[in-house]
Amino acid sequence: MPESFERGALTEAVFYILLSLHRPMHGYAIMQNIERMTGGRVVLGAGTLYGAINALVKKRWIKALPESGSRKKEYEITDAGKAAYMEELSRLGELLKNDGAERGSKA
Fold first, then answer.
1. Which tens digit of pLDDT belongs to each residue from 30-59?
2. Which end of the chain is more exposed for a tag (fewer CB within 10 A), N or C?
3. Crossing angle (nearest 10°) for helices 27-37 and 46-58
4. pTM of the model
């Protein structure tokens, strides 16, 4: 995972994976959901997605659900993942607020 992931700032891919997993999904559904949400701007390859999923499982931000007869493994966000997601939303909100304040002061 990139250095920024360890410091707290999430990559766009990780942010969208956490957002997607507020409801259980398997990998391919996550890829489709992210592509749909971003209007095709963000398209994750399988390697990127599963590398991020493995890192998020290790951090305990997401967990694999018990197998339900399907070959597709589903994941969902954990409480720790929700906290990381909310922290990122707060960080992004601060960036937007500061941008607006800075632009307003130069007008």
1. 999 999 999 999 999 999 999 999 999 999
2. C
3. 110
4. 0.84
